[in-house]
Design a protein that fits this description.
Elements lengths: L4 H25 L6 H25 L2 H13 L5 H18 L1
Helix pairs in contact: 2-3, 3-4
């Protein structure tokens, strides 16, 4: 496989733009004085993005995965992240073995 110079330039350009937007965000966040309401809105972004990524695959792949996602969501209220992952995997494995 050969590396085309145009593809390499596109790849490096995308990497540079991604890096600069992340660094700019980190540099600017220290200078902003956010109201509590705005801070709450910014704090809600990571879980919203996570749900937007997980929900389509959890709901479109089958009922076993949907049940495992619901069980994992309930486990997330009480367990650390590793425990939630273990519960989710165990739920999928168990339900697939039974059905």
């Amino acid at each position: 496989m050969s590396l085309d110079p145009i593809n390499l330039a596109a790849f490096l350009g995308m990497a540079l733009v991604t890096y600069l937007t992340r660094i700019a965000g980190l540099a600017l966040v220290g200078r902003l004085n956010l109201t509590p309401r705005a801070q709450a809105a910014f704090d809600a972004i990571p879980p919203a993005v996570l749900i937007a990524v997980i929900a389509p695959s959890a709901l479109a792949t089958g009922w076993v995965e949907t049940v495992a996602a619901l069980v994992s969501g309930l486990a997330a209220t009480r367990l650390p992240l590793l425990g939630v992952v273990a519960v989710g995997v165990a739920t999928v494995v168990g339900l697939r073995a039974l059905f």
